[in-house]
Amino acid sequence: MNPYDVERTYGSGVYALRPITLVRGQGARVWDDQGRSYIDCVGGHGVAVLGHGHPAVVRAVCQQWERLAICPPSFPNDIRSRCMARLGSLVPGLNRVFLANSGTEAVEAAIKFARYSTGRPKIVAAKRGFHGRTLGALSATWNRKYRDPFEPLVPEFVHGTFNKPETFEALVDDRTAAILVEVVQGEGGVHPATPAFLQRLQALARERGALLIVDEVQTGMGRTGRLFAFQHYDLEPDIVALAKGIAGGYPMGAVLLGPRVRPGTPGIHGSTFGGNPVAAAACLATLEVLEKEDLPQRAARLGAWFLERLRAIQSPLIREVRGLGLMVGVELRTKVAPYIQALAEHGVLALPAGLTVIRFLPPLVISQEELEHVARALEQVLT
After folding, report:
1. Active site annotation includes 244
2. Residue 334 — φ and ψ, nearest 5°?
């Protein structure tokens, strides 16, 4: 059997498999088992910020794996300590770090730190938000498609309307541990928040004794044109959840903790693989490349150009083009599935964000010529 049939036969059934078997990647391109090349605007769902096979990450992972692959968090480690110090120095005030393995783990930890710090149970999140698939993170996720099969979920999660701060005013009270929000909703359709909305949420959290958690799992690590998306809005979050691009493709998550978060006590939370030396080495290499090559600024420049290029496409199918940096969504007046398939036939891999939005999450190293190819392909399939 070919890989597609094998994964359909032996897989759990939870993934909608595309009939393209990917076997190799380099930079912003991937190749299938037939030798065909694609511009990768899926990027492992936003993971591949440095593209595929970046030599700095490859070298760091291989060298550390040979040296020491695993070291439980109960033992200090030289590479982990360097990684924690680096992460803890990225944003003034967010200088304590918890290391995990994924975005949903980072969000779970953020929720636990908020409840532990405040002694309160309630989490107020946003409609259309997506925060993960484990039971706590899923409780913060709004879409019924993800929630319904697993209810009852964790209690004390409620949802306000994104970009409508007055709906949060009615929900945040003296039982609220935290407000949890994405700066740009990814799965929810690539909707950027307004500055007024985010600033009001921050003020609301301060006024009512709650913490502000910003989910930067998809928007972080330069994706939106700043290292973190909240930096566009001069926010001072209490907790920031990170993952996806943090280690250049190696599985990793992290939580940055501010001074309003109560320090944990031994055993209150933990992770067997969190902060393993290989992931820490990959994270250090990724941060060095992001800074050395100024990739957030590159994402800002190319993202602005790409947005304008897509907005110039004349098609009655397009309702709106929106995004921030190299996180771009094209909302259509119809379902996007056939157009995503057509893009693949034109050598471009893209994602849905709901039923009617095509999402582009290319590596930050993508060239303008490759983005032009993406734009031309979209123009062809829509016109």
Report:
1. yes
2. -150, 175
